[in-house]
Amino acid sequence: MKTQNSGRSTRCIYLGLACLSLVLHLFLAFLCLSVLQKACVLPTSSSSSIPTRTDTQHCRSISHSSSSSAALPSRKLPTIPQSEDDATEWENTLIGAGKGQKVNGRTKLEELFEHPLYNLPRPELQDDDWLLRVKKKEHSGDRGSEEEEGEDAIDDDSQGSSASEEEGYDKMSWTSAMETHPPWLRFHLGISRRELYDRKDPNLAQLTHYLATQRVLGAVQKEGGTQLKLLVSFQNHGQALLKPMKQSRDAETDGNLFYFSDFERHNAEIAAFHLDRLLGFNRIPPVVGRLINVTSEVREITTDKKLSRTFFTSPVGNVCFYGQCEYYCSSEHPVCGRPHQLEVSVAAMLPDLSLAPRRSWRSPWRRAYSRTKLAAWEKDPAYCDTVKQRPPYSHGTRLLDLIDMAVLDFLMSNMDRHHYETFETFGNETFLLHLDNGRAFGRHSRDEPSILVPLQQCCRIRRSTLLRLRLLSLPSFRLSDAMRESLLRDPLAAVAPLLSEPHLSALDRRLAAVLRVVEACQGHHAEVIHNDVEGYDQQPD
Ligand SMILES: Nc1ncnc2c1ncn2[C@@H]1O[C@H](COP(=O)(O)OP(=O)(O)OP(=O)(O)O)[C@@H](O)[C@H]1O
Ligand SMILES: [Mn+2]
């Protein structure tokens, strides 16, 4: 009996101990769970305590890596710029700006643009030197009030302003509100009588970033001209002129093709913009390279039925199209993606003609565009004397502008400068727009001296142009080096150099030829150099 009782009490003790251990284990398990959960609860800065997607993923990855012996190293993904402020930094990372070798903390290109010849003192621009004026919406009665920094509107009266309109114009308000405008509009607002853009304007980088990255919302074939090009539209009414890649970058134009049968080159449009800027002209609208998807960014969104009808899939499975135009718009000359991706040049559009009408001028040194005929300037060595007698070449700076353009064209071997344009509102006292450079950079192995004929026949050149050319011929600022570095800033440089080395060295060779022509002129002409930099006697060193 006694032994029976003691056996029962021992069993009770064991049972009690087992229960206690169970409770203790349960408590421990609960404690562990709550600790683990706390690691995934986010510090809430806002009123919401719902974890975001990333945070949930983070928790999942913790639990995943803890259960796996070989956790993957974390990889940093590129971020898309959220604001325009991020744009420049983003662009610099993407396109490798500052890739040039640095001397004294500056690249050669930065050194060049710091040179006094690229920072010559210039008279301040007056009200009527701006292409588009900015008016405040407030009535004149509101002037001087605290709310002066209201919205701006473009003065669309390009024919001149009445006295009451003048009252609404406030020079101060245009800088303050600029930040709110999209880059294309700021570009338009910065166009002056003197140049298309200010090289130092930070908007330039934002504009090229905008052109290179904005989602294409619309694409139609651009009317005018002879070769295929597209007018694309972006959000905020932005537009751009797009020229597709038609041949490989290194392809030299067939020697048997006449200049007027040559293809246009997207990289020539890009390189021309860089060259014009390097020469200090700033007369070509900013152009940037881009890879587009011909299916999603053209075929699927276009409303242009004529263009749509020309799309097809090539035998190797690439998406191609050819559009409708005078030259090379046929299935024998298609523009093809790989299978969808296509290199293009994207040029900023100038203000609409209704806002800023332009005048097109036939170049006095226009070619005959014939296989047999010669133009007047090819037959008459004294041709310039007749040109100099007729307006607008008889006075002002038009002839000098034309010679600047001839120098640019000779350097890039562009034989297609049949016309040039100016903004009508500036009359004859304004710069020449260097539009349409698609036929430049066709051949690197030979030069075309006839492009320099305006300089050779007139023997006149701006001093500022000549000094910059001399500077660019020095080993420390060599034109080819400056171009190489400048072109590295274009997004397409990541695919392949925009200009091959033979094209770059052709620039140096041609620059030396320009300087030789000037020297020859000085040998038999007085007043070759037009002194537009009075008081600046320093020779480049
Ligand atoms: N960036 C621009 N913004 C607005 N208009 C432009 C721009 N570039 C060119 N244009 C206009 O479009 C017209 C056609 O463009 P472009 O000259 O480049 O084409 P094209 O086919 O090469 O012409 P062409 O066959 O006459 O040489 C030009 O004459 C000019 O008036
Ligand atoms: Mn052309």
UniProtKB/TrEMBL annotation:
GO biological-process terms attached to the record: enamel mineralization
GO molecular-function terms, A-Z: ATP binding; metal ion binding; phosphotransferase activity, alcohol group as acceptor
Query: Residues annotated as region Disordered?
Result: 45-86, 138-169
Transmembrane annotation, as ranges = 12-36
Subcellular location, principal? Golgi
- Please tell me where ATP binds in this chain: Q227, K243, E264, A347, A348, M349, L350, E421, D436
The answer to whether UniProt assigns keyword Ubl conjugation to this entry is no
Keywords for the protein's UniProt record, in alphabetical order:
ATP-binding, Disulfide bond, Glycoprotein, Golgi apparatus, Manganese, Membrane, Metal-binding, Nucleotide-binding, Transmembrane, Transmembrane helix
Obligatory cofactor(s):
Mn(2+)
Q: Where in the cell is it found?
A: Golgi apparatus
Name all FAM20 C-terminal domain ranges: 311-525
Q: Where is the composition biased (Acidic residues)?
A: 145-168
Residues in the active site? D416
Entry's family note: Belongs to the FAM20 family.
PANTHER family reported for this sequence? DENTIN MATRIX PROTEIN 4 PROTEIN FAM20, FAM20 C-TERMINAL DOMAIN-CONTAINING PROTEIN
Q: What is this protein called?
A: FAM20 C-terminal domain-containing protein
